[in-house]
């Protein structure tokens, strides 16, 4: 005898009308995966726009205004403004106070320097190598390598040094415009670190003039009486000096004659480093 089981109320097949309604309602529900994909696409688009803005700003050495920038990247002024504002707040772009023109921020170069292969700073005749950039009226070391010599300096990355009595700093000062250098001398006291430190503005200006001509700076015990240094400029793709590369060593090993001969090694390393920043035709400048 065949047994029969009655269907429960909730087991009855749905009517065609209810089925079609259910499908209609389901199709209008937001899909979590779709939302995630939309957000991802939006994020990628914003990132792409931000890099387009950054690249365009980098191409304009004298800076670029909002209207021109928006036109070149193909975005509305308000969109460009908000993206640029974010990058300015992060430091990767800066906006000039008077002209409101955008320029590349120094942290971008620091970021690029940290990504460089250490080989660009090695082989500097066994001495400690340093790469420094401007930080206000001083210079800050943002990359360094230790040499193979028995005595090595222990300056760490992030250390801040005065500009007027270090080879690295004098390279940065030599890269300033005349009006910038004048303002620097007006507001900065040239405090001596050793007996050899330059404390006379006129004497510093004369040395800066020689550095601009020769593209090389020396520190003969001016910051540390027991240390000699030599530094040269590093350029970016616009031909602007964005940092200084130098070596330091004890005076008993870095004699004036040795320092002059090793200067060529530093210049060669700076040329390679400049190439990493996109510099071209720097042979005349280095």
Report low-confidence residues grouped into runs of 5 or more: 5-11, 18-28
The largest sheet has its strands arranged as 5-4-3-8-7-6
Largest sheet: 6 strands, antiparallel
* Count of spatially separate domains: 2
Spatial extent as radius of gyration:
30 Å
Number of helices: 9
Q: So what's the overall shape?
A: elongated
Span of the ends, CA to CA: 105 Å
Strand content: 15-25%
According to DSSP, the number of beta strands is 8
Structural class, from secondary structure content?
Answer: alpha+beta
- The CATH architecture term of the largest domain is 2-Layer Sandwich
CATH superfamily of the largest domain: GAF domain
- Average pLDDT, rounded to a whole number, is 79
CATH topology of the largest domain: Beta-Lactamase
What would your notes on this structure say?
With 286 residues, the chain is an alpha+beta fold. The protein has two domains: 16-104, Winged helix-like DNA-binding domain superfamily/Winged helix DNA-binding domain (Arc Repressor Mutant, subunit A); 109-276, GAF domain (Beta-Lactamase, 2-Layer Sandwich), CATH 3.30.450.40. Helices cover 44% and strands 17% of the residues. It is built from nine helices and eight strands. Helix 3 (66-73) packs across helix 4 (77-90). The longest helix has 28 residues, at 32-59. The protein is elongated and about 60 Å long. It starts with 15 loop residues before the first helix and ends in a 10-residue tail after the last helix.
């Amino acid at each position: 005898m065949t047994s029969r089981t009655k269907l429960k109320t909730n087991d009855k097949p749905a009517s065609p009308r209810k089925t079609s309604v259910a499908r209609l309602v389901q199709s209008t529900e937001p899909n979590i995966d779709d939302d995630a994909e939309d957000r991802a696409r939006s994020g990628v688009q914003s990132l792409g726009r931000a890099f387009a803005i950054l690249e365009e700003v980098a191409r304009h050495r004298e800076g670029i205004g909002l209207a021109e920038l928006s036109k070149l990247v193909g975005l509305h002024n308000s969109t460009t403004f908000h993206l640029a504002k974010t990058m300015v707040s992060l430091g990767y772009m800066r906006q000039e106070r008077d002209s409101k023109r955008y320029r590349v921020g120094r942290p971008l170069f620091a970021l690029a320097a940290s990504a460089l292969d250490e080989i660009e700073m090695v082989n500097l005749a066994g001495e400690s190598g340093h790469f420094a950039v401007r930080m206000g009226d001083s210079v800050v070391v943002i990359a360094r390598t230790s040499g193979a010599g028995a005595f090595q300096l222990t300056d760490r990355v992030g250390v801040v040094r005065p500009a007027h009595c270090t080879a690295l700093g004098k390279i940065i000062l030599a890269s300033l415009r005349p009006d910038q250098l004048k303002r620097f001398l007006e507001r900065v006291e040239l405090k001596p670190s050793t007996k050899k430190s330059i404390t006379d503005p006129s004497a510093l200006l004369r040395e800066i003039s020689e550095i601009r001509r020769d593209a090389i700076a020396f520190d003969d015990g001016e910051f540390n009486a027991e240390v000699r240094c030599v530094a040269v400029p590093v350029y970016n793709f616009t031909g602007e000096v964005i940092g200084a590369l130098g070596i330091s060593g004890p005076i008993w090993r870095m004699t004036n004659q040795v320092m002059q001969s090793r200067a060529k090694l530093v210049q060669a390393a700076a040329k390679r480093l400049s190439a990493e920043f996109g510099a071209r035709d720097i042979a005349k400048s280095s």
